[in-house]
Amino acid sequence: MSLAMEAPLGQGEEGFRPRYDLDQSELDVLDQQIVASVRGIYPEEGVYSALIAPDHPFSNFVRGQEAKFFPEVNEFPAEEEENTLLFALVDTRLESSRVVHVGTISSPGLMRTEAHPDSTGFLFVDELVGLGNFTPEDFRAYYESRGLKLDKCIAVETNIRVGEPVEKYHGFRTVDLGYLTLFGLVERSNPEPGESAVFASINRASAVSFGRVGIECEPLMGRDDMVTPESFYGRRSTPVAIPYTDIFKAMGPQLPSVSFGVEEA
Fold first, then answer.
1. Kind and range of the H or E element at 172?
2. Are strands 47-52 and 15-16 parallel, antiparallel or unpaired?
3. Distance of CA 37 to the CA centre of its chain
4. Longest CA–CA separation in the chain, Å
5. Residue 73's pLDDT is what?
6. Quick one: CA torsion of 83, 2, 17, 55, rounded to 10 degrees?
7. Which of 148, 150, 180, 195 is 20 to 30 Å apart from 139, CA to CA?
8. 197-202 sheet: strands from edge to edge
9. Could you write out the three-class secondary structure of 191-238?
10. What is the pLDDT of residue 13?
11. Could you give the C-alpha distances from 87 to 58, 84, 152, 189, 229, in angstroms and in order?
């Protein structure tokens, strides 16, 4: 379905280019283009999940929001960004009418380009490797010995609320809907309980949100002594693994989704 609108920012005559430097007016333009695109597919007011390929122009909206919170995100090499998937929660209710949540995930199962031999396939896990916490072999051995199929797992690279909180949707806050969307992505690979997980680096607020919706997590590789990239920016975080269990299917609503540049939503 085509919509009558200007070409999204980031898509010029020379083709797409990732941008972290969009100003607020440019972000506002992309925001409304995303909302209009979702409304063109789902006319009924609601909250929808949008999956965005890393080379789709809408991905720059996610990058712009990430740059506000994590100035270091623009340090990722382009070839690593190609192996990610971006997402947004789009609130088309008239009182909101904007993107309310964004994030990025990585996974060996998302690889578009050949992974570096020393890569685990999860960007934030690779950062922990680079800081000397463990080796890729240590990571793979730990989780494969526990029955995980790493290509069915995902890592949450960022998970960010956009703007002020909006009214709950079906009783859920958008931050909780964001995690439910991520768990829904895990379910697309049809894992059996115990063979998949979500890896993330969480703060105290995220831990509270997890408890609210019944999510249990454990320290990554059973350790609580890891040096994290966030620590160099004065932020506290805890790397964790969230095992896939049957509770994923009963935690909350699965939002209708739309994909932009993603072959299979």
1. none
2. unpaired
3. 20
4. 53
5. 67
6. 0
7. 180
8. 218-219, 238-243, 197-202, 154-161, 98-106, 84-91, 47-52, 257-260
9. CCCCCCEEEEEECHHHHHHHHHHCCCCEEHHHCCCCCCHHHHHCCCCE
10. 43
11. 10, 10, 18, 17, 22
At residue 3, the pLDDT reads 27
Mean pLDDT, the chain cut into blocks of 10 residues (265 residues total): 39 71 95 98 96 95 91 65 90 97 90 73 93 96 95 91 94 85 82 89 76 80 91 83 78 83 70
| Distance separating alpha carbons of residues 39 and 28, to the nearest angstrom | 17
Residue 184: predicted pLDDT: 82
* Residue 252 · residue 213 · CB < 8 Å: yes
CA distances from 185 to 15, 18, 137 (A): 29, 24, 26
For 58, 136, 227, 229, the CA distances from 126, given in Å and listed in that order, are: 26, 8, 13, 11
The residues facing 91 across adjacent strands are 47, 98
The pTM for the full model equals 0.86
User: CA 247 to CA 251: how far, in whole Å?
Assistant: 6
Angle subtended at Cα 249 by Cα 102 and Cα 120, rounded to the nearest 5 degrees: 55
Contact (Cβ atoms closer than 8 angstroms) between residue 186 and residue 244: yes
C-alpha dihedral sign at 178, 182, 188, 194:
negative
β-pair type (154-161, 197-202): parallel
- Could you give the 3-state DSSP secondary structure of residue 129? helix
C-alpha 108/C-alpha 173 separation (Å) is 30
